[in-house]
User: Fold this.
Amino acid sequence: MVKFSQVVNSSLEWTAAMLFRPFKLKKWLLLLFAAVISGSLAGGKANFNLPNIPDAGKDKATSISQATQDKGGPAKDISIQEQLKKVKEPQVIAAILFIGGLILLLIILMGWLSSRFIFVFLEGVTKNDASIKIPFKTNKGLGNSLFLFYLIFSITSLALLGGIIISFFISLVRLGVFDKGMTVGLKPLILVATPHISLFLFLLFTAIIISLIVKDFVTIVMFKDKINFIKAWQKTIQILNKGKKAFILYILLLIGLGIAAGIISTFLYFAGIFGLLFPAGIIALVSYLIYLATPASLHVLYFIILFAILIPLALVTFYFLMCVFLPFAVFFRTLSIKFFSQLDENYNLFKFS
Assistant:
């Protein structure tokens, strides 16, 4: 029987001992790097508000329409046709394909690095060490095997998602939603949307559970037994099947602790930002006074030097602020090991390290 109070308390104790007894800045910075690349860093969300592109396009089209109508009308069709021709030009298509391919390669590269650094961070936590170079080399085979799974898993998930979207679109077409002058009631829309939304939610739930099992437990088996993903997955499922109730309680525990960690880490992060307001204000004041004392002919050079100093300083400051999230990353990584070791003592990585 899993003792969750013991799991949580021992995870907290290990986190405190590892990061604060004693406190070493270099160790924090290296562990933070491994946590960031592996995707293990807890807390923090970013919201990106995109401009309302359809409305902007509509306003632009309206202004063009009014302008061309004043000139006689035909100019509108010609301008639109010319714009479409420009989009279809080989240079534009080549540029789009090049940028898209570059982004795809970057995503694949980050996925490959993340798979390798998952084991780097796991080894760092279990051995109370912040080495990167040696663990990165020794975990090469494990990282490649995990990356191959994530690649196949991502492609399969995107294909299934695309199938749901296409099926939903075809259903709407058959329903006559896009027919001109056709009015569709709310009930038929609900009947069409419900199975697709249910299938999407099921796919999302399944993907989350699989990702959780892989990152929290399969990686432990791979690391301990030095085996590939498929063999580790089979062993992990066998172990979890013996403790199904404990696994469900573990998920509920993660949800509760995740909410608490998110609130605490966000508060600490913004407290850190608030603490930096005073030195930031001093820097801004000094920069402004220097600007006033600089001749007008040297203002361009002044701004070049200013940005050359401030941009790296801002990046370093942001990296240091992210240290707030490191204890939570170490805690949750430790928690998964402590829990899994209670299901099977053979995978108590702390005992072996």
Remarks:
- The chain is about 85% helix and 0% strand.
